[in-house]
Amino acid sequence: MSAPTVPSAPALQLVVDHTGRASSLICRGVLDARGAPRLRRAVDAALARPTVLVYLDLEDVRSVDATGARLVADTIRRCTSERVHLELWPGAAVERMLIALEVRLPRRAYPSRPCGLSAEPGSHRHPVWAIPPVPPRESMRP
Question: Given Cys at both, which of 9, 22, 36, 98 links 53, Cβ 3.0 to 4.6 Å?
């Protein structure tokens, strides 16, 4: 009689796109010691470019360990020190860990989350361009 197998936690899915002076990193799954090196390489590549905006979407990260949380905290610090705007969407799991580490979350410029992982494989639509146009409010119309 063999013991029942326990399914392993899904690995980190990562989509990276560099468009002009913006880089987007979109993650789903588990951000742990196994997936953190991939995200770190993506962050390093984004910050090595002449980037103005780094968009880090972690909304669909269901679980994060201390290694993943420290990586996100380090990314916040690096973007601040290099004067790169970080548009961070941490999601509940990541936000809880950052709060536990007493990391101050950066302010966002976008009022709502512009994207998620694309359903179509091979689609590389940058999240900034996925934001639908919003008509001006009544008080702002001429």
Answer: 22
